[in-house]
Amino acid sequence: MRTVKRILPALTLCFSAVALTAHCEEPPPNLAPPNTSASRTFEATRNGNLGGSTSVSDVNIHTLLYPGHTTKVLAHYLPWWFNPESRGVAVGYRSDDPAQALRTFKDMHARGVDGVIVDWYGQHDANGQPEPIDVAWRKSMPELEKFPDMSFSIMVDAGTYNFNHCKGCDVTQTVLSQLDYLSRAYFSSRQYLRYDGHPVVYEFGLDWAGKVDWSRIHAAHPEIAWVHIHKQGFDRDDSAGAFVWVAPGLASRKTGSADLSQLKEFYRYARTEPAKIATGGVFKGFDDLLAAWAKPNEKHYMPQACGDTWLETFALVNEEYSATNQLPFLQLITWNDYEEGTALEPGIDNCVTLQTHLSGTTLAVELTHAATVDHLELYQALADGGFRLINRYAAATSTIALPAGTSGTLYLKAVGKPFFKNVVSAPITPGRAE
Predict the structure, then answer these.
(1) Residues 164, 273 within the same domain
(2) How many domains does the chain have?
(3) pLDDT digits over 93-130, tens only?
(4) What percent of the chain has pLDDT over 70?
């Protein structure tokens, strides 16, 4: 089934050119080259991740947000890829490779991302050795400094305790043992994320790992603005704010559309606590089919629905917030969790097909899933192998009048909305007999 899925897009492009050419040609790769920080060797996975050879739209992510927004868009980032076999998915790169970190931040910056939230597992592992994730992030920071307008924040993951707690320590003691290091190693950075002057620290699942004495933690470092997951972040008096996470259903009950009820509930809670920091969330879907820790009868799933889920999560933000009621932060869930099928790094499949039919000098355009397309671009192939952009058109364009004298081979490109893949038509040849 995976083989059929890979072949069908090529067949669609070939059939769209039947009336124009006597043979089938693939669109030239340099009109839609691989352009993400994903490894070129990474192949698409059956839990919904596109391959590393995908051409992804670099239309700015902020264009999906409401007019007049001041929201910082932050990508949830997992610097935990080392041994390709250790996590069930061979992503083709190492998180502790500075060259890869540079590619990552360059890609994020090109798409308009304002910073990252680093999923963090502590300074040391259970044996007192440097924690690889922390080492990877420390190696990445000099590369982030090359993008001074980007910021970063630490999310203390429950794994800090579950896997790396200090000897004889409970959850509270484990967190307390890390705070001085966090302050020294990260808060001093001018790129560290702050809100009203306070360093923002997220925490994921610490209360699920055991009882946490947050009053002791706050007393130890009162300067920290702690942001907790979902409702507890709004309910706690000492909490600075809350963030939302993707809530998939059981894979055994797959549906065609995403259940976003928890996301809607988060924004309802946010309205009741306007003084607290709200970090909204957007995501393409979820599928932990490849996650080794998810038991076979406990797999979870949320459909991508050809990009509809991604756009719907933005629509909820835009319904709740405006230029006079700003959302401070928005988290992209996630940049690179390939195991759970949430990886945005290689782009989002929008299931777009693009067909054209030329009659005289009028080009008819048939585009599916146009809601995921930002605009169309018409190119002319040049003798030196390059391309000339003739014009841009709205995604809803159904006919294009070719400029007088247009000759040679043409291509129409559907440029996706932010994070969607780009699609190029089969070759179009004006003047060729049909």
Answers:
(1) yes
(2) 2
(3) 999 999 999 999 999 999 999 999 999 999 998 888 99
(4) 92
The tens digit of pLDDT for each residue in 11-43 reads 333 333 333 333 345 667 689 999 999 999 999
Domain end call among 280, 301, 332: 332
Q: Are 280 and 269 in contact (CB under 8 A)?
A: no
The torsion angle over the Cα atoms of residues 312, 313, 318 and 320, rounded to 10 degrees, is 120
Q: Looking at the domain assignment, is residue 339 inside a domain?
A: no
Is residue 353 within 8 Å of 9, Cβ to Cβ? yes
Mean pLDDT for the chain overall: 91
Q: pTM, whole model, 2 decimals?
A: 0.92
H or E element in which residue 399 lies: strand 399-401
Judge whether 185 and 138 are in contact, CB under 8 Å.
yes
Determine the residue type at 279.
Answer: T
307 within some domain: yes
Q: Whole-angstrom Cα distance, residue 132 to residue 164? A: 11
Residue 135 to residue 191: CA distance in whole angstroms: 18
Segment 246-285, tens digit of pLDDT? 999 999 888 889 999 999 999 999 999 999 999 999 999 9
Domain containing residue 377: 2-33+350-424
CATH number assigned to the domain comprising residue 18: 2.60.40
Can you name the residues that pair with 413 across neighbouring β-strands? 377, 424
Q: Which of residues 303, 332, 361 is at a domain's end? A: 332
Residue 136 resides in a domain:
yes
Residue-by-residue DSSP string for 196-228 = TTEEEEEEESHHHHS---HHHHHHH-TT-EEEE
On whether residue 53 sits in a domain, the answer given is no
Q: Are 374 and 395 within 8 A, CB to CB?
A: yes
Task: Mark whether 313 and 284 lie in a shared domain.
Answer: yes
Interatomic CA distance for residues 370 and 394, integer angstroms:
10
Based on the domain organization, do 210 and 319 belong to the same domain?
yes
Predicted confidence (pLDDT) per residue in 365-392, tens digit: 999 999 999 999 999 999 998 999 999 9
Place of tokens 């931040």: 105
Q: Which residues pair with 194 in a beta bridge?
A: 199
- The H or E element that residue 272 is part of is helix 261-272
